[in-house]
């Protein structure tokens, strides 16, 4: 059996049972439900503080109508950041490397923002497709370009997350393999490559958090235009 | 005196132009077709978008419904 670098991205299954369901359910298990106490323990206090602060920051630019999305966006952020961080552990599977999962989040949420805009304020939603002050000869071209960019948004959302995480995991595996192969032959080069691997791992931790944040932030921006 | 009043008028016009700045789109007074189709007011922009979509739809419909020329069969 040929082992390739892309085996880590194959959706895991055992005796025909897809294990991605366990991978997706794992973040829910890791966050304890706050009990009904006035003052909780430190872990739950930090968890609550982080979620409250993040939700507050995210909802600041949104009007009151967009605040209904607070629960959805906050839970999406926690879910994505946890899955991305867990995927950096050795031998784990990262569900967000699957384009199907990321498109499954991006397309319905983006479509919801568009439908909300068209339903509640159709004039403003349609007016956004033409930038203000466009010269008359450029109007039809710019409308077509803005329409294309509107429909590209969910694709960009999904592919951005998939590509960033896939590329990062692949790089980590490649450089780790290089360290392993070089160790008996050129130990000094192997140590330098290991240093690069360490820095890359730090970068991937940052990328994991930033990509989850960017996904949710862009969705909130699309919502801001339509609410 | 006449030169001084001319200078004052031109300075006032310059001040208005400098302070004019970015057009917020609220002080336009369009006439004719520009009242409904312009790129400054929100309704003007909406109408331009709808007109562009209608034109594209009309073009597609035109080419779809256009009768295709049948080639004349040559008798041998």
UniProtKB/TrEMBL annotation, chain A:
Keyword Protease: no
PANTHER family: ATP SYNTHASE SUBUNIT A (PTHR11410:SF0)
Key words of the record: ATP synthesis, CF(0), Hydrogen ion transport, Ion transport, Membrane, Mitochondrion, Mitochondrion inner membrane, Transmembrane, Transmembrane helix, Transport
One Gene Ontology cellular component annotation held by this UniProt entry: proton-transporting ATP synthase complex
Domain of life: Eukaryota
InterPro entries in the record: ATP_synth_F0_asu (IPR000568), ATP_synth_F0_asu_AS (IPR023011), ATP_synth_F0_asu_bact/mt (IPR045083), F0_ATP_A_sf (IPR035908)
Pfam families: ATP-synt_A
Assembly with partners or alone: Component of the ATP synthase complex composed at least of ATP5F1A/subunit alpha, ATP5F1B/subunit beta, ATP5MC1/subunit c (homooctomer), MT-ATP6/subunit a, MT-ATP8/subunit 8, ATP5ME/subunit e, ATP5MF/subunit f, ATP5MG/subunit g, ATP5MK/subunit k, ATP5MJ/subunit j, ATP5F1C/subunit gamma, ATP5F1D/subunit delta, ATP5F1E/subunit epsilon, ATP5PF/subunit F6, ATP5PB/subunit b, ATP5PD/subunit d, ATP5PO/subunit OSCP.
Protein name as it appears in the record: ATP synthase subunit a
NCBIfam families per UniProt: ATP_synt_6_or_A (TIGR01131)
Catalytic activity annotation: H(+)(in) = H(+)(out)
Lineage: Eukaryota, Metazoa, Chordata, Craniata, Vertebrata
Similarity comment: family membership: Belongs to the ATPase A chain family.
Membrane topology qualifier: Multi-pass membrane protein
Location in the cell: Mitochondrion inner membrane
Residues passing through the membrane, by range: 12-31, 69-89, 101-118, 138-159, 171-199, 205-223
GO molecular function terms attached to this record: proton-transporting ATP synthase activity, rotational mechanism
Organism: Cyprinus carpio (Common carp)
From TrEMBL, chain B:
GO cellular component: mitochondrial membrane
Pfam families, A to Z: ATP_synth_reg
Sequence intervals crossing the membrane: 49-65
Source species, domain of life: Eukaryota
Membrane topology note: Single-pass membrane protein
Keyword check for Membrane: yes
Compartment(s) where it occurs, according to its Swiss-Prot or TrEMBL record: Mitochondrion membrane
Primary location recorded for the protein, binned into one broad class: mitochondrion
Alphabetical UniProt keywords: Membrane, Mitochondrion, Transmembrane, Transmembrane helix
The name this protein goes by in its record: ATP synthase membrane subunit DAPIT
Organism for this UniProt entry: Cyprinus carpio (Common carp)
